[in-house]
Amino acid sequence: MNPYVLTIFLLSLGLGTTLTFASSHWLLAWMGLEINTLAIIPLMAQQHHPRAVEATTKYFLTQATAAAVILFATTLNAWSTGEWAIHQMSSPATITIIMLALSLKLGLAPTHFWLPEVLQGLNLTTGLILSTWQKLAPFALLLQISPALNSHLLITIGLLSTFVGGWGGLNQTQLRKILAYSSIAHLGWMVMIVKFAPSLTLLSLLIYILMTTTAFLTFKTLSSTTMNILATSWTKTPVITALAALALLSLGGLPPLTGFMPKWLILQELVKQQLPLLATLAALSALLSLYFYLRLCYAMALTSSPNTLTALLPWRLTQNTNPLLLSATSMFSLMLLPLTPTIMTLLTY
Amino acid sequence: MALLRATHLTQAARFLGCFKQTHLTQGFPQLSPCWRTISGGEYRRPGQPKEYTPIWKQFDFQKGVKGMQKHFALLKEEFLSRWTGPEGRPLVEHMLEQTRVIWEFRGPKSLENWTVSSDREIGGRSEAFLKLGRNNTTCQLYGTLCSVAPRDGETRYSGYCTLRSKPLKGAFDSKKHHDWTSFNTLHLRIRGDGRPWMINIGAETYFSHQKDEIYSYFLYTRGGPYWQDVKIPFSKFFLSSRGRIQDDQHALWLDKVNTIGMTLGDKADGPFQLEIDFIAVCNDRAHTEEFAYEVYKRNPEV
Asked: Where does the chain cross the membrane (chain A) (predicted)?
């Protein structure tokens, strides 16, 4: 893509999220969300393949629907209460509508159906932007309206997302779909706890972004989009193979890796809030997700595939001249657990 | 092309019995994959009467019950196969496999996955039939090609016949796809008669019921009594939409393949025959080409 045009799109993406972060008026927040949607559309449709265009269209339709519903609900709220400020939502009906719209935007169950297909139609970089950056703005809104939200709805959405994310990812061999279901599951965890400890939601989101960035960058470096191609990475870059296996286990939430931190703190908070059954169910659903992460580890690092090469792309070795981001994020996604107290104090407000 | 099995049936029987065997969804035409073709989605020649039997005449309770049992069994299997692994097989198999035979003609049931069609639907005079070959180990597609155009005032060319696989159906006739991402080559074992055929792969398209786009490549048969092993890499398949080869080409994405088919339309009137032993996909490690056709900018910036 023309570098000037690419710059415009990336900066627009930044603008959209920043606008939503900085806004206290619902209209400005909505505008930020729409800018984000529109800016990422050309990035998604770069490949002139009909499935890429299909993914783009599906993404646009879902996001536009969600944004329209947000606009509708906030206008209703303003009409009935006269209040446009985000943190002063008072009407329970409109806030529920907004929650459902945000769950459509984020890809939470039961509005998750678009996410695996959309991610499958994108290349890995755009998929990375979709999984990480595009989640920030809706979460900013979610955190601001969380005190007024119905906790039953949140818990239902959260638990359903963790189960759907676990169950749906079980059968997948395409890495992008696996990461889509992992996104659904992680977002479920984040949403479960938002009423009780919003700081944990933020922590969970940031750790998730870190780990997902690691995963996507690893797959991009290895030029792999399926599990079989991943299985031969030990011949190409043994170091990344070792680290990526650990990074996947971190996504699965195993101690002593970073991914354990949000799960542990969320379970602790749920138990403190007298919800031990919910905590048990959430922990059990994490096992489902862990199964497919383990399967990826098994394919990648625990077995030596007898095939030397399954993919064509690695023949054309693109010089990965900047491994800084991958090395930094992979280190963070493996080693941050001992820093839990520091991070907690940083994020508790 | 309408997916209609051209057999020796009369017009009415051809309509009602879209399939020669007792089809489980015959009591519920809406459930059958051919619903649109039955209801009028297929090509209806100008002047032909619209044939439609109302639903109350087609009702059969027993067939409906059997259909429900079959679909619920498929649904249960779909749920439980997740525990085994991708596509219901253990992960080790998925990781290690380098070849997979997709269609093998070993017995009359294997013919149910295929649909034969010719230009008889548009009023032409070609004929095509499908039967099992010798010892029930191969399938034989045979018939006569006739390129005389039908005299309906709007058709100019004629003379084709095709064999196409039926798309995979899951529980309640949901769409399932072939996932051939582990492979990069198509391997066929055929015995033709020297005619040039086209292999068409139908992948999942932009719209859910779009039947315009197809990826094709040529199959030159050698004829003669000896079997021919044909290996065609998937990178060679080019895209055509509604029969026209597109300028904006792209590689075939293998993760959602629906149908494969063979077409004959070489403008040579007369009998033809193609015998197929199996159709398989394999992974040729030495094949490193991603896409055989250059994709260049048609309007480059100056």
From this structure: 57-79, 153-171, 178-197, 203-222, 234-254, 274-294, 324-347
